[in-house]
Every structure is written in structure tokens, then in C-alpha cells.
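To close the section, here is one more complete example, presented without commentary so you can practise reading it yourself. The ligand is LYPLPQDE.
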Amino acid sequence: MSAAVAPSAARAWLVILLVAVSGYGNYYCYDAIGPVADLLQQQRGFSDAQIGLLNAIYSLPNVVMVLVGGLLVDRFGAPLMTLATATLCLVGALLTAFSPDFYGMAAGRLLFGIGAETMGIASLAAAADYFHGPGSRVALAMASLLAIGRLGSYSADMSPTWFAGAYAQGWQPPLVIAAVMAATSCLAAALYWWADRGPRRAGQLPTSQRAEAFVWRDLLHFGRAYWVMLLLCVLWYAVILAFRSTFSIKYFQHVHELDLATAGEMNSYVFLAAVVATPAFGWLCDRQGRYAPFLAFGALLLPLALAILALTHWNLWITTVLIGVSYSLVPAVMWPLASRLVSAQRLGTAIGLMWVVQNAGVGGANLVAGWLNDRAGASAANPAGYDGMMLFFGTASTLGLACALALWWTAGRRHHELRAATSPGHAAAG
Ligand SMILES: NCCCC[C@H](N)C(=O)NCC(=O)O
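Output:
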């Protein structure tokens, strides 16, 4: 990948801003189901399995589509694919908001999911386009995209407070607001496509084949540490996304007796903390040159918080802080660590596979949690019905912690990480 003259810093950051606004709408829509879960149950008679399915159906097709999406981004470029996927997300969000029945809503979430995950890949590719070469701030650019995405999740959780009037009218107006966010995302994507035309025509962006395509035979070259991290990725994301983005608000309403707005706010602070803390933790790890211990600490906080939630009536702020730190620390460390465990030419394959398995895990966890809640009759009248779901999430996150400890022990000790710093992509691959 080479380009004659790099685009100006102003142009590069303008592009990041537009892509970030696009990502904001994407994350808002993803998290729009949690706040209406209880309303969907009360007003439309949806079961927990159906609510879980509305988010599972986002993830499951992406077990394949993430790979196809990566190839399409390579083939057609990040700007066009951002615009195309943002449009698909808008169609999905409209279908979700205006469908007369569950099947239409599920079809909407399916389309939205197919668009949203490929948009995530296109966003990373946009950052790589504009920040390449020695001394570039690609990590900061990617962390900024992630941080603005978290702001979208925060806004979705705050929406019962910010748009109380809409929620008072029922399940539909909040989903129409989500569709408006998707439209904003589409507009930002169109502006990015337009802003990119100049530098691209001037040959200022990398043009040769990306190194990020998925190559099956690369899998043979990944060391044990990579596979352990992949397991951690699937277990940790399955719990955090199925819990925080689907069931936690309803759980807070039914088990901890919060009203909808307070439950949404309590959930939202996790995302708000992540807006600032994700880039800050990334910076800290880079500075210390240590990754695995931070990752293990982040992975420990999740089962700890779930145990406190399930077994005590301690102040919910405690668990919010614990999950907030975990949600900031683990992604801030995991993706840079991936780039240290595999060589640069295999990074696309490495991350592609992690997203494939992650989507399978998140989809599966949503379905299992919904099924467990329905089987036990979980509701405000029967809060103990949520015990099975909490046990499931607790077990999965504890297994995730075991993977993080194994990673630290086998490839993340100080001497391993020092070696990796001088020979990136190889030293810690054992
Ligand atoms: N939009 C919420 C799901 C994002 C899943 C995506 N595959 C991913 O891992 N993104 C990185 C992150 O930490 O959000």
C-alpha cells in the first residue's frame, strides 16, 4: 500500500469526524431495542425469546456476512461501502419501526445488522486510508471512532430520559427516533463519500490491494495465544452485548425495581465512561508497553459485577463502574494486542475471524438468555426468573476470565511483551 502525498491532517480528521457521526447512528440503532424491551412485552406481547431474537438476528448472518463485507470493502472502497451500508441500515431501521408484526421487525433488524457490521469494517478501512505510514495516528483515529460509537450507545440508553414524551406514547416513537439517527448516519456517509473524492482522485490514498483480506491459509500461522484471545473475544463480547444491549434495562426494571428512565440512565453510564476511558486506556497500555495484565483485569471485572448484581442488593453504581471499566479496557487492549500477536499482513484475517466468531457468540447468547428467561417466567412479578440468565452470563464471563489469565501466563508476561514490542507480530505468537 503506497500513496504519493498524504492527505492534509485537516482533511483526514474531517473524514474521521464524518465516519464517526455515521458510526454514532449505527451504534444508537443497535442499542435501541434494550430501552423498548419492556414496552414491546407489555404492548405487543413479545416473549423474551423474541426480544433476544431481535438482537440475535443482527449477529447471526454476520457469521458469514462479515467476511463478504470485508471483501466488498476491499473491492469497492470504504467510502462507497460506508454509504451503501448506511443506506441498508436506514432501510432496516425503518422496517423495524414501521412493521406491523414481529416478523417485519425481525427482517428490519436482519437488514440493519448486515449493513452495520460491514459498516464497522469500512470505518476501520477509512481510518487506515487516511492514517498510514510511519508516525501516523491510526490508533488514535480508530479509538476516536470507537469512542463516538459508544456515545451513540449512551444516547440510546438516555433516550427514555431525553425523549420521555416519545416513550410515553409507546414502543413505536422511540424506534422512529432510531430511524432518524440512521438517516443522519446516511447523510454523514454521503458527505464522507463526497469529501473523499478529491484526495482519492489526486492519488493521495493507498490504492494497491489491502493487506486486510481474509486468507484461509493464514489461520495455520496463528499461534496459541491468538486462539486463546479469540475465545476471550467471543465469551466477553457475548456477555457484554447480550446483557448490556438487550436485557439489562429490563433486568434493572424487574429485579432492582428501577423505572425505565432510571434503568436506561444506569445502563448508559457504562457507555459514557467508555467514551473517555477507551482512548485513555489505549494510551496507557501503549505507554506502559503492557497489554495482557490490563486485559485480564478488564475480564475479571465482568463476572465480578454480574455476581454482585445477582447475589447482592448493593448500590447499582458499583456494578455500573465495574462494567464501565471492563467495557472500556477490554476493547482498548484487545484490538491493539491482536496486531501484536499476528503479523501485519495477517491482521485482516485475524480480526475478520474474531468478528465472525464474536457474532456467533453474541447471537447465541441473546437466544439462550431469552429462552432461559421465558422458561423460568422471568418478570417484575417473578424476579427470580432471571437467575438462570445471570448464571449463564456469569459462567461465560468466568470462562472468558480464564482465557485472559491463560493468555497472560503463556504469552503476556513482561518478557514476552517486551519482545513483541521489538518484533511486532511475532514474539508473542507462541
Ligand atoms: N454495534 C455494536 C456491536 C459491535 C460489534 C463489532 N463487531 C465490534 O466488535 N466492534 C468493536 C466494539 O468494541 O464495539
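Once you have examined the C-alpha cells, check your reading against these statements. The pocket of LYPLPQDE is lined by residues 27, 30, 117, 120, 146, 149, 241, 331, 355, 358 (CB under 6 Å). The longest helix spans residues 224-255.
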